[in-house]
Amino acid sequence: WADPAETQEEKNSSNSRAGKFLESDSREFCERNGITLLVRSHEVPRTLRGIMANHSGLCLTVFSASNYCGSVGNRGGVLVLRPSMRRSPALEAFEHWAPPWPQLCSMLGAEGLRQALAERRKHAEQWELSFGISQKNCFLGELPDPFASAVSVPSEESLSASREQLMQYMAERIVEHKEELFEEFCRVDDSCSGMVNISNWLEVMMKVFSHRYDIITTAVLGQLSQNWKLAHQVHYVKFLHRFQIRDNPEDGSVLIDRIKIVTQLQSQLVDFSAINLEHLLDPNGDKAVSHREFAKFLPQFHIKVPPWQAAALYETMASMVDQDPINLDNTILCLALVSQDPPKPEDDPCADVAEAIGQKILQSGTTLAGIFRSWDQDKSGFLSLVELNSGLQTLSLSHSFSDAEVSACMTKIDSLGKEDQRISIFEFIRALAPRHVTLELQRSMIREVLKRVWVCRPTLLSALGAKDPDATNKVDWDAFHDCVREVNDAIHDMGLPVLTPTQIQVVCEIAAAGREDVKYNEFVHGLHVEDTWSSHGAPMPLAVSSCTAWLVKLAGFLPC
Prior knowledge:
Blueprint: H1 8-12, H2 23-33, E1 38-40, E2 51-54, E3 59-62, E4 76-82, E5 90-96, H3 101-108, H4 117-129, H5 156-176, H6 178-188, E6 195-197, H7 198-209, H8 218-227, E7 233-235, H9 236-241, E8 243-246, H10 258-269, H11 274-281, E9 288-289, H12 291-297, H13 307-321, E10 326-327, H14 328-337, H15 351-363, H16 368-375, E11 383-384, H17 385-393, H18 403-415, E12 422-423, H19 425-432, H20 435-445, H21 451-455, H22 457-467, E13 475-476, H23 477-493, H24 501-512, E14 517-518, H25 520-526, E15 528-531, E16 540-542, H26 549-553
Parallel strand pairs: 1-3
Antiparallel strand pairs: 2-3, 4-5, 6-7, 8-15, 9-10, 11-12, 13-14, 15-16
Helix pairs in contact: 6-7, 13-20, 13-24, 14-19, 18-19, 22-23, 22-25, 23-24
């Protein structure tokens, strides 16, 4: 309730509910807290303008309600702060005069808010011109420049904090648009190498973000690329995977990183016998791997995955190969290829040979695992270099490769795991699978199961509050499940991507963290975006912003 006063006399004569503060108080507060200025509201400016400056520009009053109470006659104001990574922020100030509700209804007509944005903007501009207000009327020049004073010269510490905030903001935007970014990266990656040069990276980022967020410019992205230590060639799967939605680890998190889990499994299977692998994946020998068999398979390699997340991992693989249950060969294919690493590099001298071999095998209607099995003449579960060479001779390749190229390719295959003069089924598949197959698998694995919950957290909290009238911050599993499903149904009605029933159970499993009930406030407020490749080596939690593109789409559904 405190308001700024320009003189000691004004401060002493105050009849407000709280004391007033002077310019010396504002200056001391800014210096002590390392900030540039105060922006506050609370009172209609005496000038009846939307924004008023006090204390040599150290304290700005922004009052956004025009014609307060329908009778005061003041303009409303909006202050836009545009961050910069290299200099002080830029301030822009705008005024408006909102019409009364009946007038607004008349202006919009029968279409209402369904009317195109350009039309609504045209009505607003015409209305405000009658009050002498123009959207181009930026009147900040009439106000003292707070950034010109000595106290407000930003320190290196404050500039560093500004950079961190922008990195946090960008990480959230990347998570929101991860699938679209992947599609655009693939579009410019003609060779399916899993890599783009930094110029193409910048082109994609601008295409996806610039028309949505005017804060994102080529200069900002250029600086971010340096902060993120991106190389000239960007591994875009790794880049997208580094930004993830995580829950609060202090609450006993059971959330797994699916790609990380499969990569851990690969490290144990890269030199594993194909025969033993098939027995473990398919114990009943029906050439298919059921969800139950897959769930029992993981613990045998000390891979601990909560039940519903194991089911979701299986569901993702089933969706990738369009099979349920998944046949044995496709299960091996998924486990061998899913990782954040790019496919075999385009400039690898063996890449063309391996690509041609893989394409030829798949065109014959045989799976990579199937051809491996047929070439394993001694049934050892591995291919010797002799067996590999013999098998390669049976292929009629459209392009002729020299013996030296084939020999180098064989050596390369062996080097993809353990170099021991024998080739495992994982080494074989990872070397010969066409690059586009690897990218398709990676596309599915980078999707975030918590994304819908994170985007819709205000709505989820509202639904949970209705289930918890005594505000205990606890609901049972079934009540939490019902609330997630309620949000999911509403998203479905709006034509947006939804969670599968299995994924809904995954959300419940993560939120409960091993308990029978869910402490929903801790779960929802604990959701955040992490840059898992922070420069400090440990995951870096990023602040959660409520300004998301999806929230705009859900404006008619989410509570204010």
